[in-house]
Every structure is written in structure tokens, then in C-alpha cells.
Amino acid sequence: MRTSTRLVIAFDDVGDGEPALVCLPGWCSNRTVFRPMLPRLARGHRTVALDWRDHGGSERPAADYTTDDLVDDAIAVLDESGVGRAVPVALSHAGWAAIEMRRRLGPERVPGMVLLDWMVLGPPPPFVAALAALQDPRRWESTRAELFRMWSTGTDLPALDAHIGEMAEYGFDTWARAGREIAARFESAGSPVAALERIDPPCPTLHVYAQPADDALLAAQVAYAGVHPWFAVHRLDAKSHFPMFEVPDDLSEVIEAFVAALPAASAR
Question: How confident is the model at residue 153 (pLDDT cuts 50, 70, 90)?
């Protein structure tokens, strides 16, 4: 589809029913990351999984671009494909795009969001250093290799290996841009939950993740949810940064239960 952003944005569109689920891949990732889940999610909801500009099957722009441009693309896909109410299902740092979609479109259009395997309480210092290293021509490849290793530790899944292979096809420019944009969002917002706290009215938000398997981190999120009832967390029985390849049924069921509990659309 050539959207109002004047770029061709590629996406999969399956199923029926609103709110639609709009699957947003992370930087340097393609919509193929969601394909293990699409048949499951599409049983009850229209499900759209897109490629960002300069990613997958989407068009490459002539100029530099930012997270705000990605949000423009996602909203254009919704508008021009006739999606009304939509719940973003955002992998990792695509969560920043999901937050901005809710801020721009409001609760009637975006009644909730699902965040997948993200640093919702804020990035640890080593990751901040990794974002800087991704922007260094001398260090980006070794940094990327270390991220790939961490993301797939303890797994032996050909589909996951193939997806990481797709991510490895992106070069320095795209990975450096990812490092720049992710770092800028953390610097300006502090943390995803801090950004979510500034949304009024609060947005029902579910964080579903597998990595890291740190009980203290889970406990901190459960404690946060106890004080902020709009937030919920669920840790999956999986090992990688991409649990959709390991436990697609479990992940889909958690998402479906969350969406089913969202408030119905207001009468107009």
C-alpha cells in the first residue's frame, strides 16, 4: 500500500473484528516476526502486521527518518485500510511508537496496548552503552553480534535463527539509526512506564515477556502494577527475546485475554 506518507508500506492483513491488533516489529526487524502468531490472533480479531519504512517489503525513503515518521506510517496504514479501534502489539522498542499512537489518537481509537519483551522500567546501563556502540562504525558489528547471542540464548529454533538472519541483513546505517532513536526516547522519557504515566486518561497496558528470567525484575513490575492498575505484566515460560517463536499459543492467549477485558467502544 502506498500510504499518505507517500511511501509503500508492506503489511499482512488477516482476520476480522475490532479492536484490530496492529503488530509493530522492532527496529531492524520485519513483520515476519509475527507470523507464528497471526493465524491464532486472527481467529478473533483483524490482525495487521506491518514493515516499517526501509524494512522488509516497505519502501526505502531517500532521507533520514525518525520514530515519529514510523508512527506516521502506522497511522496511515490504519486510516487507509479502514481500521477503526486498534490495539498496538509492539515488539521491544516499537513500544515508543505504540505510546505515541495512543497519545495522538486517544482512547477511543487506541483503547489499550500490548508491549512485548521490553525494558518497561528503564534500560540498564550496559544497554545504554550498547546503543552508543551501535552508532560507532568500529563497534557496531560486534555489539550487534552480542545482542543476537543474548536474544537467542538457550534456544534451538530454526525459525528464530532465520529471523535473526533477516535482522543481520541490515547494515550500519539502519542499526546506527536504531541506536540513535532508541537512546533519544529513553533520554527524553526516562522509561516507558514514565511515558505511560503522562498519558491522560491512563492507557490499559500489558507487558508480556520472557527475557530476562529475573525474579526480582518480575517482582518490581508486579509491585508497579499494584500501584498503577492500568498496568499488567505476564512472564512467559520461554527463554528468548522472541517468545512468539517458542510459545505462540501461550503468547496469543495472553494477548487475547487482555484485549477481551478492555472497555467496549463508547456509543456515539
Answer: confident
**pLDDT band at 4; cut points 50, 70, 90:** low
Give which of 264, 122, 267, 111 is closest to 199, Cα–Cα. 111
Helix 95-109 vs helix 172-189: crossing angle, to nearest 10: 60
220 CB-contact burial (10 Å; exposed 0-12 / middle 13-18 / buried 19+) = middle
Mean pLDDT, residues 18-41 taken together: 97
Q: How far apart are CA 44 and CA 55, in angstroms?
A: 28
Distance CA 206, CA 195 (A): 15
Instruction: Tell me what percent of the residues of the chain surpass a pLDDT of 70.
Output: 97
CA distances for 230 relative to 200, 227, 258, 266, angstroms: 11, 9, 11, 18
As given in the structure block, the three cell numbers for residue 160 are 528464530
> What mean pLDDT value characterizes the chain?
95
Residue 235 belongs to what H/E stretch?
strand 231-235
Instruction: Write the burial class of residue 215 (CB in 10 Å: 0-12 exposed, 13-18 middle, 19+ buried).
Output: exposed
Are 108 and 101 in contact by the 8 Å Cβ rule? The answer is no
At residue 264, the pLDDT reads: 83
pLDDT in the model for residue 268:
46
Q: From CA 81, how far away is CA 97, in angstroms rounded?
A: 19
Angle at 67 between CA 45 and CA 265, to 5 degrees: 30
Name the residues annotated as catalytic: 241
* 14, containing H or E segment: strand 11-14
pLDDT of 239 higher than 90: yes
